[in-house]
Amino acid sequence: MVRKISMAALFVVLAATLLQSTLATNYTVGDSTGWQRPTNNADFYGNWTKNKNFVVGDILVFDFPTGQHDVAVVTEASYNSCTATNAIFNYTNGPAIITLNTTGYHYYICGFSGHCAAGQKLRVDVQNGTNTPSTPGSSPNTPSGGSTPPNSASSLIATLPLIFMSIFLVLFCY
To answer: What PANTHER family does the record tag this protein with (predicted)?
Structure first.
């Protein structure tokens, strides 16, 4: 009896972990433009982040050709001065895939000469919670994969099967 309950509890924990990982949103930085030096809009990536709500667990995909760009994870001071010499980490192979693991501001620049100064830099504000549009009536851009980011309603819908499975397993074990 105890073994059945332990197995049921393990199954519920594994299912919850799996569901949580499916709620993360993949964002292709710059959407179809990708990660490149902006040609006519120095605030291209700043505008790209508008109406997006980045949360812990989301994934940024920096799509760029290896050897033509990189992604340097930097401090705020290095972001402001476009300096990659003391980068926290540097991704040199494209595409670079970065999971947002902590809340707060995260700073990324291209370390190639002149690229950051031309606007190839990104600052994202990562929050706890679920992905919802930042402003009422707005809709976030569709991430790669063709689905929209989950919101509170889709999180509830994704949680309902877990609740029913838990009830079924508890009843099954008794």
So the answer is: BLUE COPPER PROTEIN, OS08G0482700 PROTEIN
Mean pLDDT, 10 residues at a time, over the chain (174 residues)? 57 53 84 94 93 96 98 98 96 97 97 96 91 42 35 46 63 63
125 contacts 104 by C-beta, under 8 angstroms: yes
Cα 32 to Cα 146: distance, rounded to the nearest angstrom: 12
Classify residue 142 as exposed, middle or buried by CB count within 10 Å of its CB (0-12, 13-18, 19+): middle
Q: How far apart are CA 172 and CA 138, in angstroms?
A: 45
Together in a domain, 136 and 168: no
Distance CA 115, CA 96 (A): 17
Q: Are residues 16 and 37 in the same domain?
A: no
